User: Fold these one by one.
Assistant:
Number 1:
Amino acid sequence: MSEAELIKNVKLAINPKFQDWVLFKNGTYIIFDNADTIKSVKDEAINQMKEFGPVFTGGPAGDFGTIHLNKTEGWIVSGHGYGMYTYVSPSEIENKNPNDIEIGVFGRNKRDLDGKKPEIIYINSTRK
């Protein structure tokens, strides 16, 4: 999936009431409720990704939930870290009828990649 396709799908996945968010290379994004109080959304996103992105066995970062999307194909995987989610496209999973656990583990692994090497590809912001 191209970066443009990823951005398009994440835009469709996020509730429109959330206007401030940062998207990372592997599909993990962080929503900010209080972006106007943050000096640098980019720096804060990197810090949160480094703290909550990496997965450690037996810790809360291994937990996840799977959300089925209505406005676009795919799923969102929630996990450790407030406002942090990972988009998973059906094209990324080999099984054409995956269950929530397969989707969740796949999304958790994508978040782990973003956490270990955070690379922002898009920032959506209401700040000027």
Number 2:
Amino acid sequence: MKRELHCLQYGEQEIQYQIVRRPRKTLEIGVELDASVVIAAPEDATLDAIEAKLRRRAAWVTRQQRYFSQFLPRTPERRFVAGETHLYLGASTG
């Protein structure tokens, strides 16, 4: 599979998307759980045709990205400090 990274300007927002070329007949636009956009395209599809389809679906894409971004982890990355207590299998350790 060949992956291509591209960017589309939609109003003031920039939609970054990844194109995955596959042996298929139709174009599929998907928004992943991490709010990234992946487009599964036929191997012979032109970039202009792909961007035209993405422009038509851009409102839906941004709506999906906003929805999925509310579930992204908001907790800071854990740091293990000496003397700190952590839970392991529901019991406090340390």
Number 3:
Amino acid sequence: MTAVLTLASIGDLEKVAPLVAAFHAEEALTTSEAQRIAAVTHLLEGTPLDALYLICPRVTPIGYVVVSHGFSIEFGGPDAFIDKIYICTPVRGKGIGVKNLLQICKILKAGGPKAVHLEVDQTNTVAQRLYSRGGFDLRSNYNMMSKELR
């Protein structure tokens, strides 16, 4: 399958919402539907530093990639963070994930970021292999830490 990414907009909410819900169910994330819809709506309405790309046919997408932008002195300028990459279960294992990972990096590079980051569960060796094939390296001296602001 060809690696095709399409920038999503608010008109794609009905297509994106079930994909996000499926990902959250698979990962046992405890977000409510209202939380997911509010976050996805904010993203799809357009923010200067964030984007959601649909994977493959826009009519019936098979996944999505969420990207946000920041800045890193360590990497020498703007950087990007792949918040999520999700491929529907029936089409996994066919190279779609790595093709789209490479494609999103190409899109991001054209926009100026010096580095792209992502996080991966320490026990998810399948995702780690996918990200390695996409050129990502584990940074063994670093752990991601988070604080939710409410």
Number 4:
Amino acid sequence: MQQLHFVRNRAAHHEPIHGRDLRRDHDYAIELLGWIHPGAAAWAKDVTMLGTVLDARPSI
């Protein structure tokens, strides 16, 4: 939860997050949501575009 709070604050304040493992952060977020409401986690997993965006990102 602390990691998600950190990345959320960084993104919300337009601070750099490009060096983070955003796929891992996303997986953590979906897992946490699943603990709270499994149906919401399934919905979020179906509608997210983060994987597509990360796949299109240029490699370093």
